[in-house]
Amino acid sequence: MTLTRRAVLVGAGAALGGLGATALIRGARPAALAPLDFAETLNDASELSPVKVAEHLRLARNGPALEQQLTAVLGKDRPMVVSAARHSMGGHSLVADGHVVTIEDGSVQVQDRTAEDIASGRLRYRVSGGTRWSDVIAALDPLGWSPAIMQSNNDFGVASTYSVNAHGWPVPFSGCGQSVRWVRLMDPRGEIRLLSRDQDGTLFAAAMGGYGLFGAIIEMELEAVPNQRLAPTFTAVTQSTIGPRFVESLAADSGISMAYGRLRIDQKHFFRDGMLITYAPSAEQSGLPPVTGSGFLSKAARPVFRAQVDNEVAKELRWIFEAGIAPRLAGETTRNMLINEPVVTLDDRDPSRTDILHEYFLPPDSLDGWLGSARDIILGSYQQLLNITLRYLAPDRDSLLAYAPEERIACVLLFSQEKTTRAEGDMRRMTEALIDAALDHGGSYYLPYRPHATRQQLLRAYPRVRDFVALKRAHDPALKFRNGFWSTYLEDLA
């Protein structure tokens, strides 16, 4: 019996997911804008960022037609933001009283391999500004290829992944930007610019993890790697050993191509026990099965996963399955099968709650200390932790707002939060404490989630943020491209 990573969630877990006006993005309305008579209210994946926008445009074209439509939006007198799926959680894909553009075209063009491609073992492919990872996998899988770096779910936009420089659990990589060859971007003046490491490299580094503040992505070229049949290895670890063991395992076996860790979350054993799961190529690589979507076991995982809310028995049973039963059931799978899973499989359907992600990046040797602090902080809150996944990150030498300038272990935490003012206040207090602990242990935190970090924490975690703001103002003096992240943290940063 073969289990995908999601099927293991019959006893394991991972996922991504309204407050009232109190949850609106901070920051004053630009003085030049008159109040709107009519507006549409949009939200993002947090369900806690309702924003009134002047216009929401869905553009389903690519190439010259898309460029003409974007140029028309640029000619209007309000700010704009371009997005795909709006999976960020702090208003990063929304702009108050502005134009929100959703690009929906999903084109993928596989390029002929050059001698350089063959030597590197890579394939190049191009996508439009609205392409989702599901489109990429569908195009590459029949050819025997797989995206080199993508997020852990397939329904995110590729350009959006570059714009937040998201990572996944393919190893040994950093953020998605590491696999991006070039980007065609429409700048605030409507000009098309080709950005790469060799051409307009400063802007390329700023747009990688730049949250769409430097322009609209029209097209991108990325790298793919061979799809493979993979066999898993499950290793029991502890809180104190999982960080160093993660690094040692990857160094000892260069064939490992996918890896992640889990930690136990029931209160009695909170973070103390863990599992490290690595995937390496199996001996037989011929006749790879075609990629499929969510199977029965993946869908059956949702009610079990959701039963963990305020339920210690469910959390304990989940760990018994994940650490004891799943390793005996798991079989071979393919690289594409592991990453071809939508967020909605384990989505929350409770209208009174929402799923909130956190992410922290720690030096491997400091992970144990942060986990100890995080245990006390989380258990001292009212929040319901459903899952923690650990991933490896190689140093990011490219992006201006690098969250992993050196080797890091990423800790991705998923909370189920009540949609109440009390819960939001408690989440803010807990988040600030977790960020302080990460900073004290030489780490950082991820920016696309709820806007609960303080300005001082931002400056401490991202020491080049002032350079980022200065470049933004020089590149876009009229501040045509704006979003909630800009208005909350950067607009008045000197």
In a few lines, what is going on in this structure?
This protein has 494 residues and is an alpha+beta fold.
List the helices and strands and how they pair.
Elements: E1 40-42, E2 51-53, E3 55-59, H1 63-74, E4 80-83, E5 99-103, E6 108-110, H2 115-120, E7 123-128, H3 133-140, E8 145-147, H4 158-164, E9 180-186, E10 192-196, H5 201-207, E11 216-226, E12 229-238, H6 242-252, E13 258-263, E14 273-281, H7 296-306, H8 312-329, E15 333-334, H9 335-339, E16 353-362, H10 367-379, E17 384-393, E18 408-418, H11 421-440, E19 444-445, H12 455-461, H13 465-475, H14 484-490
Parallel strand pairs: 3-5, 4-5
Antiparallel strand pairs: 1-2, 6-7, 7-11, 8-11, 9-10, 9-11, 12-14, 12-15, 13-14, 13-17, 16-18, 16-19, 17-18
Helix pairs in contact: 10-11
